[in-house]
Design goal:
The complex is a heterodimer. Chain A is mostly helical. Chain A has one domain (about 5-90). Chain A has helices at about 5-15, 25-35, 35-60, 70-89. In chain A, helix 1 runs parallel beside helix 3 (about 35-60). Chain A is elongated and about 70 Å long. By secondary structure, chain B is mostly helical. Chain B has two domains: about 1-95, RNA polymerase sigma factor, region 2, helix turn helix motif (Rna Polymerase Sigma Factor, Chain: A, Orthogonal Bundle); about 105-205, Arc Repressor Mutant, subunit A (Orthogonal Bundle), CATH 1.10.10. Chain B is globular, with a radius of gyration of 22 Å. Chain B starts with a helix and ends with a helix. The chains are: A mainly alpha, B mainly alpha.
Chain lengths: ~90, ~210
Amino acid sequence: MEMLTCKDASHLISESHERPLGLWERLGLKMHLWMCVGCRRFERQMTLLRLAVRALGKHPEAVDDGAEFPPEARERIRKALTERRDRQH
Amino acid sequence: MWCIRDERARDRKETELNKNTLGSPDTWLDEHGAALYKYALMHTRDEHKAEEAVQETLLAALESRDRFAGDASPRTWLIGILKHKVMDMFRHDAREVQLADPDDAEDAQVEDNFAANGHWRNMPSDWGNPEELLERGQFMTILQRCLDALPPRLSKLFMLREVMEEDTETICQDLAITPTNLWTMLYRARLGLRQCLDRNWVGKTAQG
């Protein structure tokens, strides 16, 4: 079996988040990871990245980018809502 | 016959009760507006689009407030509607960028990670424990900045897949791309993000 490069291995690690890997792919990756600390770290980084991004999706307020709901936007939306409600009644 | 009527009456009663939980539409904007806006801005990265998404969400909520089932909190229910609105925007945007086209610049970005023999040019660093990582707001802020720094089509796809947690099949169908195509672009996005995080996050911890 031909040895995987780190580039091949990282591609397989990324794809393992998308589809089940085949037997040979899994074996090749396992052998590579056994020898390669860089790819072991990459694999962990990918798991952490997924966790972090999902957490970000659930708690966007965790990002401290100083972005506030602009008062003008709030008022425009309020107006649109009031108009729609008046039409409903 | 009155069996049915009875059920309807009960349904109506339940809806009435749930309306109480949802609160008056007048209060939605004050109670949830800021959270919805933040969510929309994170996904759209555009103030006008975020405002549009929040407005569309609240208008849709107004139209369908009778269908609020009451098993989720009003915030969760509103975010659910917002998610759909953002998805629609994504689909619209995605149709505008040529998703299936190969991109040499993106490919060069991938190559930048590796030496000619296929080994890491810079060894990926150890990010430590997930608990520690996720507790720090700073990591999330840098992550957001790194997402912004990706080529738009890569960040959009990555967000669809990882933040919206859409599955491969749905994304491929919606955007008319092949799974192989999608996986290659997700790989590029992940490599780009980790490189950006390695540079900006780990550099920071080493200093502080």
